[in-house]
Amino acid sequence: MDYLIIALRIISVMALFLFLVLKTGRRKIAELPVYDFLSIIVLGSVIGADIAEPNIPHLPVLFAVVLIIALQYLVSSLLINNKKIARKITFGPTVIIQNGQFIKANMKRLKYSIETVLMLLREKDIFDLNEVEYAIVEGSGSISVLKKPQYLPLTPSDMKLKPGAKGLPLPLIIDGKVQDGNLQQLKRDRSWLAAELAQAGIPDFNEVFYADCTREGRLYISKIVQAQNFHDDFTL
Question: CA-to-CA distance for 199 and 81, rounded, in angstroms?
Fold first, then answer.
């Protein structure tokens, strides 16, 4: 009987938790503000105790979950509407390199060592500090970098070029099934698609796992490949 109670509790709590999270917004775990992160820890403790101990009344636990999520939602709304409070209880962006020079006081406040900053810069493919104009630690702990002008890559606007808009490719075949509606949008038909597949050595639509095409006519084709052990072909 205890196992049935535990199973029902898991289903009810997780269903309620999922519903509330979907209603309060979607964010990456790494980008959660401090209060949101603390809310998850508390929720985990409450739900864990409820699941592990069947003798604990279940309805108060559900009430606690609703209350914690509601408080989290209210605090998030408050942070959006009141920047003064937001600066007090969240980690805002902090400049640690300005005009190519380290700001020691900000690094000390963040408890970031030089080694940590160098590691974060390497993750951005920056191995030479001479390239860095600004480096900012975001509230999530990640780092944003602005390179010095001479180290920035050329863009079409720098070269006075005006590239055309790049649309999304349209799926033409998904798991062997031809998407006729997308073919019509591209003003193509099955005979054209069959001819393109024949040039790639594919005689039948059923042999294609996925294929798409851009507005410019660039085709991507992925055949259905039998599963195999990755280590058979690669040494790690």
Answer: 58
Helix (H) or strand (E) holding 219, with range, is strand 219-223
- Could you tell me which residues come within 8 angstroms of residue 96 by beta carbon, excluding any fewer than 6 positions away? 102, 103, 106, 107, 110, 112, 117, 135, 136, 137, 143
The first and second tokens of residue 168, run together, are: 């999304």
Number of Cβ within a 10 Å radius of residue 149 = 7
At position 200, the amino acid (one-letter code) is: A
* pLDDT per position as a tens digit, 170-189: 999 998 999 999 999 999 99
**Domain 169-223 adopts which CATH fold?**
CRO Repressor (3.30.240)
Structure tokens belonging to residue 74: 């209210």
Strand order in the sheet with 94-98: 101-102, 94-98, 132-137, 143-147
Assign domain 94-151 to a CATH class: alpha beta
pTM of the model: 0.54
Q: Which of 138, 215, 226, 127 is nearest to 172 (CA)?
A: 215
pLDDT, tens only, 141-152 = 789 999 998 888
End-to-end CA distance of the chain: 48
| Helical H segments across the chain, by residue range | 2-24, 34-52, 58-81, 83-89, 104-110, 114-123, 180-185, 190-199
- Give the DSSP letter string of 120-136: HHHHTT---GGGEEEEE
The pairing of beta strand 143-147 with beta strand 101-102: unpaired
The tokens describing 138, both together, are: 């975001």
